[in-house]
Design goal:
- The complex is a heterodimer of chains A (about 550) and B (about 130).
- By secondary structure, chain A is an alpha/beta fold.
- Chain A is about 50% helix and about 20% strand.
- A 5-stranded parallel sheet of chain A has the order 2-1-3-4-5, sandwiched between helices. In chain A, strands 7-6-10-9-8 form a 5-stranded antiparallel sheet, sandwiched between helices.
- The radius of gyration of chain A is 46 Å and the shape is elongated.
- The two termini of chain B are about 20 Å apart.
- Classes of the chains: A alpha/beta (about 550), B alpha/beta (about 130).
- Chains A and B meet through helix 11 and helix 12 of A and helix 1 and helix 5 of B.
């Protein structure tokens, strides 16, 4: 920048002096944008021309003197001012100093002095501007970095909070999350009926025990007009930017209370409500202890943001716990229901069999067939009850297997034998391909169930074609197959047949709960075995069960 | 069933449900057993102490007054009674496990068929004969 491009405003009410100055400036190569005689006009001119510098006489006509004009220019415009005056008394100097002038030229002065004063002022002003720009840039960069850290923290928080659906673990995670990024000490209080329960405390300095002791010995009244009771009651956050010793002394009820409060040493706190789905579940307290941490309104916003995430994690964990309880209740109900159903089934089954025996003695054939039907239906009913309970138990992973030494070939012959009647009715023959004996360690009752399910299915879907049951194996394992040539399973259903309430066919044409194969798989797996199926629509189905011959570990009867 | 019916084997049934009791009396009598019944553990103990000596006790678990578990522990305290094998009867899912825990000779899960009942008794008879 050459001097010619530097625009100067001259504020001088003495015309002669003003002209003189203008000439000097022009000689020195500056461009004088304006010469004005009052403070008001000086301000207007600065606004209009934006000079690089103002030469300001202090003594001006009118109500506004040069110092006041300089003050206003400095306030409104980023333009340096150099005083040009004949006055140098202390009072004036003192007033002038307050306006942070860039120079002070005492009349009379040399042109050279003027030049130096202007150049130094401009240089200083530029340097100052550059410095401010750098500071702003730094602040902006710091803000970006802080924002990045904050977003990273929120992302981590989301991840850490989603790790577990267990309520206690989630609450622990909430407090651990806040320390030390947001607080030196963090607490979570939850509503508990009419009261409030402290559920988690975490800090870096080992003061947790003190906090627990304080809360145990001096629990705050739920009706308290400040602190977390207030936040939980009103759902509004609380910010205490500075907690002095007087505050501690005022809130303590006795000396021991004060001792504990002082030992913990809260310096500031932010308490925000934990709100999920419109309901205040509790509060998250962030406390500053000995660090240089202080809380401002923006920290309340941040704490609120964290609290929102925490609250929904807590809510999720709670809903999950409630769902688990509902499932347990359902299982309990099914268990009781099936037990209650068994007693009438037991006496009815026995009564029917007694009737059956009596009928056979007198040779009443037509009546006997009717009794057969009822007995068959009772057997079906019994199985349904059995399966309902199995499903509820298997849902919580309690397939109990009591292994004993047994002959699997004999078990298959036995179970298949029970289907003679229904196979005959379906017009299908059951063909057995079994070794004479195949002894291993299994739960006969459970494998009997699996066989019953598989053979029952085969008969249901065999379309009158023969059913093949095979058994093969070696020292360590047994392979059992049940094959039919019936309607088969469509390929889209095939991957799902072992799932709960799944069925390969429409429930309109074929009855059943859709539980048999699910239960079978659970039972086979409880034996350490595997079950699979190969099938195509219209091509029949082959179910294969592979079982270890001896259970690796025998479950202990407890 | 039994070739020599000179002295039909005696069975004690401890069961609170009168219908089940009746049907089992029918079924077992029909199959050549001599059956005595008791409504609960207290009833069963007093009959046993009074001199009843069944070859086997069929024991329901869930009963009022004295349940099957208590009966079993009382039974095991008296040497003469302790020798009598017990078959546990229950509609509970864990009946097999309960049977093991109670040191029973066998178990029947409700509902059961007469064949299953007779098979249990036959198995016990075979065991005591050999």
């Amino acid at each position: 920048m050459t001097a010619g491009e530097k625009k100067i405003l001259v504020v001088e009410d003495e015309n002669v002096v003003a002209m003189d100055l203008k000439q000097s400036l022009t000689r020195l190569g500056y461009q004088v944008t304006d010469c004005v005689g009052t403070g008001e006009r000086a301000i207007a001119s600065v606004e209009e021309h934006r000079p690089a510098l103002v030469l300001m006489d202090i003594q001006l006509r009118g109500r506004m003197d040069g110092i006041e004009a300089a003050r206003q220019i400095g306030e409104r415009f980023d333009v340096p001012v150099v005083y040009v005056t004949a006055y140098s008394d202390d009072a004036t100097l003192k007033r002038a100093k307050v306006t942070e002038p860039y120079g002070y030229l005492l009349k009379p002065f040399e042109e050279r002095e003027l030049n130096i004063a202007i150049e130094m002022s401009l240089f200083r002003h530029n340097a100052q501007r550059e410095h401010e720009r750098l500071l702003q840039e730094q602040a902006a960069r710091a803000a970006v970095e802080q924002e990045r850290q904050w977003l990273q923290f929120l992302a981590d928080a989301g991840e850490r909070l989603s790790v577990s659906l267990d309520l206690d673990q989630t609450l622990g995670a909430v407090t651990r999350l806040a320390v030390p990024y947001l607080a030196d000490l963090a607490m979570v209080q939850l509503k508990d009926g009419e009261g409030i329960r402290t559920v988690a405390v975490h800090d870096v300095g080992g003061k947790e025990d003190l906090v627990w002791e304080l809360l145990r010995r001096y629990p705050p009244d739920p009706g308290l007009a400040h602190g977390y009771p207030q936040v939980i009651r009103t759902g509004k956050p609380e910010l205490l930017p500075a907690i002095g010793d007087d505050v501690l002394a005022a809130s303590a009820v006795d000396a021991e209370n004060l001792r504990l409060l002082r030992a913990i040493g809260p310096k500031a706190h932010v308490c925000v409500p934990l709100v999920s789905r419109g309901e205040t579940l509790g509060a998250l307290s962030l406390v500053a202890l000995d660090s240089n941490r202080f809380y401002r309104p923006q920290d309340v916003e941040r704490a609120t943001e964290v609290a929102r995430r925490c609250a929904s994690a807590i809510d999720n964990a709670r809903l999950y716990r409630e769902a688990q309880q509902a499932i347990a209740l359902r299982d309990e109900f099914l268990s009781v229901a099936s037990h209650e159903l068994r007693t009438p089934l037991a006496s009815a089954t026995l009564a029917l069999q007694n009737v059956d025996r009596a009928i056979r003695r007198v040779g009443e054939g037509a009546l006997g067939r009717k009794v057969d039907t009822i007995m068959q239906q009772f057997a079906n009913l019994t199985q349904l009850v059995e399966r309902l309970l199995d499903v509820s138990r298997l849902a919580v992973g309690k397939a109990d297997v009591t292994p004993e030494e047994l002959d699997l070939a004999e078990l298959i012959r036995d179970v298949a034998g029970r289907f003679d009647e229904s196979a005959r009715r379906a017009g299908a023959a059951i063909e057995l391909h079994l070794p004479a004996r195949f002894v291993g360690e299994w739960d006969g009752l459970r494998l009997g169930q699996v066989l019953t399910n598989l053979i029952g299915n085969a008969i249901k879907f065999c379309k009158g074609r023969p059913i093949q049951i095979g058994l093969d194996g070696d020292e360590t394992s047994a392979t059992l197959t049940v094959r039919d040539d019936g309607i088969g399973i469509p390929s889209d259903k095939l991957p799902h047949v072992f799932e709960r309430f799944e069925r390969g066919v429409s429930s309109r044409n074929y009855g059943g709960l859709g539980l048999g194969l699910y239960v079978s798989r659970q039972l086979v797996e409880a034996h350490g075995g595997r079950i699979r199926v190969e099938s195509e629509a219209g091509q029949g189905a082959t179910f294969t069960v592979e079982l270890p011959r001896h259970l690796p570990a025998r479950p202990v009867a407890s | 069933v039994n070739a020599t019916l000179a002295q039909p084997p005696k069975v004690m049934l401890v069961e609170d449900d009168p219908d089940i009791r009746d049907q089992m009396i029918d079924a077992l009598t029909d199959s050549g057993y001599d059956i005595v019944t008791a409504e609960n553990g207290v009833d069963a103990l007093s009959r046993l102490r009074a001199g009843d000596d069944p070859r086997v006790i069929l024991l329901d678990l869930m009963m009022p007054v004295m349940d099957g578990w208590t009966f079993r522990s009382e039974q095991l305290k008296e040497a003469r009674l302790a020798e009598i094998p017990v078959v546990v009867i229950s509609g509970s899912q864990g009946v097999a496990r309960e049977a093991i825990r109670l040191g029973a000779a066998g178990y029947l899960k409700k509902p059961f068929t007469i064949e299953m009942l007779l098979a249990q008794l036959q198995k016990l008879a075979d065991r005591t004969d050999t």
